[in-house]
């Protein structure tokens, strides 16, 4: 029989192990933005999400688990996710007319379908992603 202390350590240990795995899963779900990759995805008519991210931004960090959950859903399996680094990719920011980190932009092929800034509500982010499908 397992005692309470061993059980508590097992539960805490499992929880601590799950945190890095969930963030690692999202880390591989996006591609760093490049003009070539973006244009290829557009030419193929793919649904596209541009995620403007800054590592120091608390709103960006709040968006990531939501995006991870949504993009793991079968209906978004074809969504191409490109991440623009807010601090280092200034040309890309100008290209898309982005003034703030935590900006999400969706495209269906070459057509911009919608954008949001600073949104951390799962329902409205899901609605935005739906516009790209």
Give the structure's gist in a few sentences.
The chain is of the alpha/beta class.
Task: Describe the protein in words.
- The protein starts with a helix and ends with a helix.
- With 133 residues, it is an alpha/beta fold.
- Mean pLDDT is 85; it is low at 4-28.
- It has 5 helices and 5 strands; from the N terminus they run H-E-H-E-H-E-H-E-E-H.
- Helix content is 47%, strand content 21%.
- The chain has helices at residues 4-27, 35-43, 58-71, 90-96, 122-130, and strands at 31-32, 47-53, 80-85, 103-108, 111-117.
- Helix 1 crosses helix 3 (58-71).
Report the uncertain regions: 4-28
CATH superfamily assignment?
Answer: Glutaredoxin
* Estimated helix fraction: 40-55%
Q: How many strand units?
A: 5
- CATH A-level architecture: 3-Layer(aba) Sandwich
Using brief descriptors, characterize the structure shown.
single chain, 133 residues, alpha/beta, Glutaredoxin, 5 helices, globular
Record the SSE blueprint.
Elements: H1 4-27, E1 31-32, H2 35-43, E2 47-53, H3 58-71, E3 80-85, H4 90-96, E4 103-108, E5 111-117, H5 122-130
Parallel strand pairs: 1-3, 2-3
Antiparallel strand pairs: 2-4, 4-5
Helix pairs in contact: 1-3
């Amino acid at each position: 029989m397992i005692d309470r202390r061993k059980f508590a350590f097992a539960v805490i240990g499992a929880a601590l192990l799950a945190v890095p795995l969930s963030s690692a899963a999202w880390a591989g779900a996006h591609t760093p933005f490049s003009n070539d990759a973006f244009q290829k995805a557009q030419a193929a008519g793919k649904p596209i999400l541009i995620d403007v991210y800054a590592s120091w931004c608390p709103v960006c960090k709040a968006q990531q688990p939501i995006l991870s959950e949504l993009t793991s859903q079968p209906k978004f399996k074809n969504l191409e996710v490109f991440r623009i680094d807010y601090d280092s990719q200034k040309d890309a920011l100008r290209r898309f007319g982005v003034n703030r980190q935590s900006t999400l932009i969706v495209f269906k092929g070459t057509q911009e379908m919608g954008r949001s800034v600073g949104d951390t509500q799962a329902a409205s982010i899901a609605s935005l992603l739906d516009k790209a499908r």
